[in-house]
Design goal:
The complex is a heterodimer of chains A (585) and B (368). By secondary structure, chain A is α/β, with parallel strands linked by helices. Chain A folds into 4 domains: 2-224, 3-Layer(aba) Sandwich (Rossmann fold), CATH 3.40.50; 231-314, Alpha-Beta Plaits, CATH 3.30.70; 331-400 and 490-585, P-loop containing nucleotide triphosphate hydrolases (Rossmann fold, 3-Layer(aba) Sandwich), CATH 3.40.50; 408-482, no CATH class. Chain A contains 20 helices and 24 strands. In chain A, the strands form 5 sheets. A 6-stranded mixed β-sheet of chain A has the order 6-7-8-3-9-10, with helices on both faces. In chain A, helix 17 links the parallel strand 21 (485-489) and strand 22. The longest helix of chain A has 23 residues, at 562-584. The radius of gyration of chain A is 25 Å and the shape is globular. Chain B folds into 2 domains: 3-42 and 169-362, no CATH class; 49-151, abc type-2 transporter like domain (abc type-2 transporter like fold, 3-Layer(aba) Sandwich), CATH 3.40.1710. Chain B contains 14 helices and 4 strands. Chain B has helices at residues 3-19, 21-41, 60-71, 83-91, 105-111, 126-151, 170-201, 203-208, 214-244, 252-277, 280-298, 310-316, 320-334, 338-362, and strands at residues 49-55, 75-80, 97-101, 118-121. A 4-stranded mixed β-sheet of chain B has the order 2-1-3-4, with helices on both faces. In chain B, helix 7 packs antiparallel against helix 9 (214-244), helix 7 (170-201) packs antiparallel against helix 13 (320-334) and helix 13 (320-334) runs antiparallel to helix 14 (338-362). Chain B is elongated and about 90 Å long. Classes of the chains: A alpha/beta (585), B mainly alpha (368). The interface between A and B is medium-sized, with 31 and 25 residues.
Chain lengths: 585, 368
C-alpha cells in the first residue's frame, strides 16, 4: 500500500504547479487508475513514485515506511534504491531499444533484473505467450506495431514480478485489441503483494479498474471505485432512440432544457445526463417525442457530473457562422480516389477511396500508425500521394490555387501556432493570412475572443496556455474565415472531458450551418458524432459507413458498440492477412 | 558497481553500434574522409609557384643561386633582366613574386660582406606571399650555409634547420591534428548523440528508474565507445602510414597512454553534453562547439598558438586537444620524449577526473 500525503510539485521556479497538495491511497492487489487530461499531473506523480523526480513537499509511505524521497539518507526511511529494486516503471515513451530485437530487449532487461537459468526461461516463455510475440522474437522492436511495442514494453517490466508496477499511459493510441491484451496481462499478475499504477487519458478504461484517482489541473477531484462515481449518476442518464429529426438540432435543443447538463450524440441516438430533475418533467417540455429509455451510466457521465456538467447550453459559434456552403451543393466536398502513399517499402496508405457529402462529419478512425493521418494530410495537400487523386469541391488538390485554398480550414494535431505571440496576436495574424480585412477582420478576432472565452488571456503568449486553451485557439484560427470544409486532426487528443464536449458542441454547431468536417480520432465515443466513418487499419479502409451501420457488424451482441465492431473488423483483417501470408509462404 | 549489469549494458551498446549505420560511418568513414582531405586537399605546401628572378649580377655565386631556385620544386622560375619586366609580370598576374639578385652580389659575398637579395611577393594573396617569402628565405639560407663551408667565412652564420619533419611536408604535421579531430568527434560527438537519443526515446528514463547506479550507467557507456575510439585510432594510424607514409618515431605504448587519457576526456565531455542537452540536435551542436571548433582553432594544429594574443593563448590551455596534439606530434615526428608525453597525459588524466566528478553530479537519477 502506498500512501501519498500533501504532495506538491512545481516547475519553472514555481510558475507552473503540476501537483497541488495531492493526497491519496494506492492499495495493493488492485489496478489503480490515474485518470485525467494531459497536464493534469499524472506523469509527474508517477515519476515521483518511480523515484526519478523530487517533489517540493509532501510525504510518501510504502507499507508504512516513509520513502526517503528527498534523499536525506535517513536510516529508518526506505531509500530510493530500495524503492527502485521493487518497482518496474514503463514510461510514456516506452523504454524499448528500437534497434534491438524482441529477444534482445527481453535479454537486456532480464540481465538488468539479474534473472538467470530456468527462472529466465520460464519468464520468457510466459511473457511471450501473454504478449503473443512468439512469432516475432527476431524482429527489431522499432518494426513492431504500436500495440506490440507497448506489449513488449510491458513484458520487459513484468519479467521479474515487481512489487510495484508503474505504467504511464500504456494504452494511448493503441488499437482496442492490444488495449484489452494489456489490461489482461496486468490483471493476470495481480496478487496480495503487488500494487499497480496505470495512468490513462481514456475515461472508458476506468470502468475496467478497481480504483481510480481522477486528476485535473494538479488536483484530485475524485478517488474511489469508479462504480461508486457511476452510482451517483444512476437513474440520471436517458437515451432518445431513433431520432428522426436532425439529431444535432435535437441535441442542442435538449441541452437548453432546464435540468439537462449534458447531451451525447451516438449514431441515431441522443443520450442525456440530467441534474436529477424528473425525466417526466423534462420529457413534457418536448413535443411529439417518444419517451426516453433509462440506461446504465458510463464513467464518462460520472466525470461530467463531477466536473459540473456543461457550462454553455449552446455553441456561440452559431452566432458567428450563419451559412457556409459551396455554390454547388450536390458535389462531394472532399473526395479521395484510390489514394496510395508509400514510404520506402512501407505502404502507409493503400488504395483508399471515399467521398464526403456537404454538411456532414466524416471521421477517420484508427489506432496510431494505421495511416489515418497520412490519408488526412494528402487530402489537405500537405503530402503528395504516390498515386490516386484528392479533390476538394471537385477540384484536384494538385491544381488548386491559393484562392481555392481559402475554402479550407485546417487544425493540425501538434500545436502549430506561434507560441511567442499572444492569443490576440495569433488571431490577428491568422485573420490576415486568411485575407480578412478592415471591419470584417476586427469582427472575426473579437468574435473568436468572445466565443472561446479568451478575454482574460488575450495578452498571454500562446506557448504557455494549457492544452485545452491551445486547442481552442488552434480551432479559432482555423475557422475565422468561415471555411466550407474544415479538417481537424485529432483535435481533442489529451484534453479534459468538458473541453472535449465543448469542442464537439462547436463542431456540431458548425456542421448544422452547412460546414463539412473531416476529423481523425482514436476515441470511439467521438466517432459516434460522425455521419460517416472510415475505419482505417494498416493502411487500408476496413469498413465504411454510419456508426449504426458499423455496429451491425456485430449485431449478435446485445448492445453493440463501435469498439466491439472495431475489434471484430481488426480481428478479421488480421486473420485474413495471416491466411494470405501462410498461403504465400 | 555490478559487473553483470555493466556487461549486459555494454553488450547492448555494442549490438546497437553494429546495427546503427551512422555510428560505423562516424567511426570509420569520417576518419577516412578527414585523412583524405588533410592528406591531399589541405596540404599547406604550395609547389611550383611562378616567380621571376631579376639577375642583375653575373658572377658565379649568383648563377649558383639562380640554379638553386630553378631546381627547387617550390618555384617555377623565369630569369629576366629588368625589374620593369618583372613588375609587369606581377601586375598582369603571370607571376606571384620576384627575387632580385642585386649587382655586386657575388663580389660582396666573396669578400665576406653582407650579401643580400630582395624578395618581392604579391600581397593580394597573403597566404601565398608568406610561402614565397618563407621558401625563398629558406633556400637562400641553405645557399648561404653551403657558401659558409665553401668560403670558411664566419660572417655568415644563419643557422636555420628544420628538424623533426625533415621533408617539411605539412601533411605529417597536420596528421596529428587530424587524429585529434577524429578522436574528438568519435569520442564526444558520437557519445553525446547516442546518450541524447536515449533521453529522446525514453529508454534513459526507463533505465534510471531501475536500481542501476550512476557509475554503472557511465561505465557502460564509456567502455564500448572507448573501444570504438581505439579501433578508429588504430585504423587512422595504419591508414596514415600506408597512404601518406606518415612517420611514427615513438612507441605504441606512449601513443596508447596519451590517447587513452584523451579519449576518456572526450567521452566524458560527450556524456556531459548529452546530460545537459537531452536532445540530439542541441547535443550535436554543443559537441561541435566544445570539441570540433577548439580543436581546429586553439589546439595549435592549424594556427600557431604562439602567434595569438596572450589572453587567447591562456584560453587555449583549457582545451584537452592542445595537449593531445602536442604529444601526438612528438610521438609521430620525434619519438618518445617522455617529459612532454607524461606531462600531457597527466594534465589529460586530471581533466578526465575533474569532468567525471562533474558528470556524476549532473547525471543524477532524476528526470528534471
Amino acid at each position: 500500500m502506498i500512501e501519498i500525503t500533501n504532495l506538491k510539485k512545481t516547475f519553472n521556479k514555481g510558475a507552473l504547479t503540476a501537483l497541488d497538495n495531492i493526497s491519496c491511497i494506492i492499495e495493493s492487489n488492485k489496478i489503480t487508475g490515474f485518470i485525467g487530461p494531459d497536464g493534469a499531473g499524472k506523469t509527474t506523480l508517477l515519476r515521483i513514485l518511480a523515484g526519478i523526480l523530487t517533489p517540493d513537499s509532501g510525504t510518501i509511505t510504502i507499507d508504512g515506511r516513509t520513502l526517503d524521497i528527498y534523499e536525506q539518507q535517513r536510516s529508518n526511511f526506505a531509500s530510493i534504491h530500495e524503492l527502485q529494486k521493487m518497482t518496474s516503471y514503463m514510461p510514456q515513451k516506452f523504454g524499448l531499444y528500437e534497434d534491438l530485437t524482441v529477444t534482445e530487449n527481453l535479454e537486456l532487461y532480464a540481465q538488468l533484473q539479474r534473472l538467470e537459468g530456468d527462472e529466465k526461461c520460464r519468464a520468457f516463455e510466459s511473457v511471450l505467450q501473454m504478449t503473443k510475440l512468439s512469432n516475432f522474437t527476431n524482429r527489431l522492436a522499432g518494426n513492431l506495431s504500436g500495440g506490440m511495442k507497448q506489449k513488449l514494453g510491458l513484458a520487459c517490466a513484468l519479467l521479474k514480478k515487481p512489487k510495484i508496477l508503474i505504467l504511464d499511459e500504456p494504452s494511448v493510441g493503441v488499437d482496442p485489441i492490444s488495449r484489452r491484451d494489456l489490461i489482461n496481462m496486468v490483471n493476470s499478475m495481480l496478487d496480495e503483494d503487488t500494487t499497480v499504477l496505470w495512468s490513462t487519458a481514456y475515461l472508458d478504461e476506468a470502468e475496467n479498474l478497481d480504483h481510480v484517482i481522477l486528476l485535473n489541473e494538479g488536483k484530485v477531484i475524485f478517488q474511489g471505485n469508479p462504480k461508486e462515481a457511476i452510482g451517483k449518476v444512476k437513474g440520471r442518464v436517458y437515451v432518445f432512440t431513433d431520432v428522426t429529426e436532425d439529431k444535432r438540432k435535437f441535441a442542442s435543443h435538449l441541452l437548453k432544457i432546464d435540468g439537462v447538463i449534458d447531451t451525447v450524440i451516438a449514431g441515431k441516438n441522443v443520450k442525456i445526463l440530467t441534474n436529477g430533475r424528473n425525466i417526466q418533467e423534462i420529457h413534457s417540455e418536448l413535443k411529439n417525442i417518444e419517451k426516453p429509455k433509462s440506461v446504465t451510466p458510463l464513467f464518462e457521465d460520472a466525470c461530467v457530473n463531477i466536473l459540473g456538467g456543461m457550462t454553455e447550453k449552446e455553441s456561440p459559434v452559431l452566432q458567428y457562422i450563419n451559412d457556409v456552403k459551396f455554390s454547388d451543393s450536390d458535389t462531394n466536398v472532399v473526395e479521395a480516389i484510390h489514394l496510395t502513399k508509400r514510404f520506402g517499402d512501407f505502404v502507409a496508405v493503400d488504395n483508399v477511396s471515399f467521398a464526403v457529402k456537404p454538411g456532414r462529419i466524416f471521421g477517420l478512425l484508427g489506432p496510431n500508425g494505421s495511416g489515418k493521418s497520412t490519408t488526412f494530410r494528402m487530402l489537405c495537400g500537405l503530402l503528395r500521394q504516390n498515386s490516386g487523386t484528392a479533390k476538394i469541391a471537385g477540384i484536384d488538390i494538385a491544381d488548386m490555387g491559393s484562392d481555392a485554398k481559402m475554402n479550407i480550414g485546417y487544425m493540425a494535431q501538434k500545436f502549430s501556432l506561434y507560441s511567442m505571440l499572444s492569443v490576440r496576436q495569433n488571431l490577428d495574424f491568422f485573420s490576415g493570412a486568411y485575407r480578412l480585412t478592415g471591419k470584417e477582420r476586427q469582427y472575426a478576432v473579437e468574435s473568436m475572443i468572445e466565443i472561446f472565452h479568451f478575454k482574460q488571456i488575450q495578452n498571454v503568449n500562446a506557448g504557455v496556455l494549457s492544452l485545452g486553451f491551445k486547442q481552442r485557439l488552434a480551432l479559432a484560427c482555423a475557422i475565422m474565415h468561415k471555411p466550407p470544409v474544415l479538417f481537424l486532426d485529432e483535435p481533442t487528443s489529451g484534453v479534459d472531458p468538458i473541453t472535449r464536449k465543448e469542442f464537439w458542441m462547436h463542431i456540431n454547431a458548425m456542421v448544422s450551418r452547412g460546414m463539412s468536417v473531416v476529423v481523425t480520432t482514436h476515441f470511439m465515443d467521438e466517432a459516434e458524432n460522425c455521419d460517416e466513418i472510415a475505419l482505417v487499419y494498416r493502411g487500408k479502409i476496413r469498413a465504411l459507413g454510419s456508426p449504426d451501420d458499423l455496429k451491425q457488424i456485430c449485431k449478435d451482441e446485445e448492445n453493440p458498440t463501435l469498439e466491439q465492431a472495431f475489434i471484430k473488423i481488426i480481428e478479421t483483417a488480421d486473420q485474413n492477412e495471416q491466411f494470405t501470408n501462410t498461403f504465400e509462404e | 558497481m555490478n559487473i553483470k549489469t555493466v556487461k549486459a549494458l555494454v553488450f547492448k551498446e555494442l549490438k546497437q553500434i553494429r546495427r546503427d549505420a551512422s555510428s560505423i560511418l562516424v567511426a570509420f568513414m569520417m576518419p577516412l574522409t578527414l585523412l583524405v582531405i588533410f592528406g591531399y586537399g589541405l596540404s599547406f605546401d604550395i609547389k611550383h609557384i611562378r616567380i621571376d628572378i631579376v639577375q642583375q649580377d653575373s658572377g658565379k655565386l649568383s648563377k649558383d643561386l639562380v640554379d638553386l631556385y630553378s631546381h627547387s620544386e617550390y618555384f617555377t622560375t623565369n630569369v629576366v633582366t629588368s625589374t620593369q619586366e618583372a613588375k609587369g609580370n606581377m601586375e598582369s598576374g603571370k607571376t606571384m613574386g620576384t627575387i632580385i639578385i642585386p649587382e655586386n652580389f657575388s663580389e660582396k659575398a666573396q669578400r665576406g660582406q653582407k650579401a643580400e637579395i630582395q624578395i618581392i611577393s604579391d600581397g593580394t594573396d597573403p597566404n601565398t606571399a608568406t610561402y614565397i617569402e618563407a621558401y625563398a628565405q629558406g633556400l637562400f639560407n641553405k645557399y648561404l650555409l653551403s657558401l659558409k663551408s665553401e668560403l670558411k667565412d664566419r660572417t655568415i652564420n644563419i643557422i636555420n634547420r628544420l628538424w623533426f619533419n625533415p621533408t617539411t611536408e605539412s601533411i605529417h604535421f597536420l596528421m596529428a591534428g587530424a587524429l585529434t579531430m577524429i578522436l574528438a568527434i568519435v569520442g564526444t560527438f558520437l557519445t553525446s548523440l547516442v546518450v541524447a537519443k536515449e533521453w529522446e526515446r525514453g529508454t534513459m528514463e526507463a533505465m534510471i528508474a531501475t536500481p542501476i547506479s550512476v557509475s554503472e550507467i557511465i561505465v557502460s557507456k564509456v567502455v564500448p565507445y572507448f573501444g570504438l575510439c581505439i579501433v578508429s585510432l588504430v585504423f587512422s594510424l595504419l591508414y596514415g602510414k600506408i597512404a601518406f607514409n606518415m612517420p611514427f618515431e615513438g612507441s605504441i605504448f606512449s601513443m596508447g597512454l596519451v590517447s587513452s587519457a584523451f579519449i576518456l576526456v572526450s567521452l566524458i565531455i560527450g556524456l556531459i553534453v548529452s546530460t545537459l542537452a537531452k536532445n540530439q540536435f542541441v547535443a550535436g551542436m554543443m559537441a561541435v562547439m566544445v570539441t570540433f571548433l577548439p580543436t581546429m582553432m586553439l589546439s595549435g594544429f592549424v594556427f600557431e598558438i604562439k602567434s595569438m594574443p596572450i589572453w587567447l593563448q591562456a584560453f587555449s590551455y583549457i582545451f584537452p586537444a592542445k595537449y593531445f596534439v602536442s604529444s601526438v606530434r612528438t610521438i609521430c615526428l620525434v619519438g618518445d620524449i617522455w617529459e612532454g608525453i607524461l606531462r600531457d597525459t597527466f594534465v589529460l588524466t586530471l581533466m578526465a577526473l575533474g569532468l567525471y566528478k562533474f558528470l556524476k553530479k549532473k547525471l543524477r537519477k532524476n528526470v528534471e
